[in-house]
Amino acid sequence: MKIDDLFSVSGKIVLVTGGSRGIGEMIAAGFLANGAKVYISSRKADACDATAKRLMETYGGECVPIAADLSGLEGATALADELKQRETKLDVLINNAGQAWGAPFEEFPEKGWDRVLNVNVKGPFFVIQQLMPLLEAAASADDPARIINIGSIDGLRPPKLQTYSYSPSKAAIHAMTRQLAAEFAPRNVIVNAIAPGPFPTWMLSTGVGGGGDVDNTDWDSLALTNPRGRVGTPEDIAGLSIFLASRAGAYTVGEIITCDGGVVVG
Question: Where are the coiled-coil regions (predicted)?
Fold first, then answer.
């Protein structure tokens, strides 16, 4: 019943898709800092390599980059094949890779639907499908394998931005989480989702006027709209992810847990 036992992820093998920046990088850092071996994937190989190097320089441990476009079956299969060459099991899968698209209603393009739904819904499904043999190889009744899907509070309430395909995609990943949770729990694979609120990321910066410049975005103004009076930090999202992946979270199944400072209930 000690903290070190309840929340330990030391020695676990973890994959964080979309781990080269933003929330994915924050989650990867948390696992790496606590003794896990972490794989991160990204469409851009250079960015993925640079993040893996930076994380290891900061936290030590082993962070392995894998370039992958996870918008469909082909990319998911390639990622799984690469991982199977390196590992015989996978303890934790974090489906974080995501896409958003913003445009006025009258101008919103079809490709803004196709790309977002492919990356945010179809991609995670096939990543899970292709990695299930590795997850089941790691799974036991005492220590189940874990799948953590990264949704969004925009999948729980109307979004503030004109991102018409993003909100439905996140509602879909929440629904898929519950369906797979019911199916996989008897196989000792636990599925949950996290629905983040505002975090200082490239994606959110592009929507709130920062143009993708995370460091120079006015996060203080955004924080004034949050009941907690701030945006999220790496400790917030990494801590929740580690809980779900540790012994402490082994009886939590099929939940959509907000990490938003109270936006949904505010």
Answer: none
What letter would DSSP give residue 88?
S
Q: Cα–Cα–Cα angle for 78, 92, 260, nearest 5°?
A: 110
- For the chain, percent helix, then strand, then coil, each to nearest 5? 50, 15, 40
Q: Which residue has the tokens 């390599």?
A: 49
- Token duo for residue 225: 């709209």
d(CA 160, CA 89): 40
Written as tens digits, the pLDDT of the chain (266 aa) is 899 999 999 999 999 999 999 999 999 999 999 999 999 999 999 999 999 999 999 999 999 999 999 999 999 999 999 999 999 999 999 999 999 999 999 999 999 999 999 999 999 999 999 999 999 999 999 999 999 999 999 999 999 899 999 999 999 999 999 999 999 999 999 999 999 999 999 899 998 888 889 999 999 999 999 999 999 999 999 999 999 999 999 999 999 999 999 999 98
Q: Among 139, 154, 206, 151, which Cα is nearest to 178's? A: 151
Q: Which residue has the tokens 């060459």?
A: 85
For residue 246, give the amino acid letter.
S
Angle subtended at Cα 169 by Cα 168 and Cα 173, rounded to the nearest 5 degrees: 115
Distance (Å, whole) CA 255 – CA 263: 18
Point out the catalytic residue in the list 39, 59, 164, 166. Answer: 166
Catalytic residue at 251?
no
Nearest to 22 by CA among 261, 234, 258, 243: 234
Whole-angstrom Cα distance, residue 259 to residue 226?
A: 12
The closest alpha carbon to 135, from 99, 96, 90, belongs to 90
Sign of CA dihedral 142, 30, 254, 42: negative
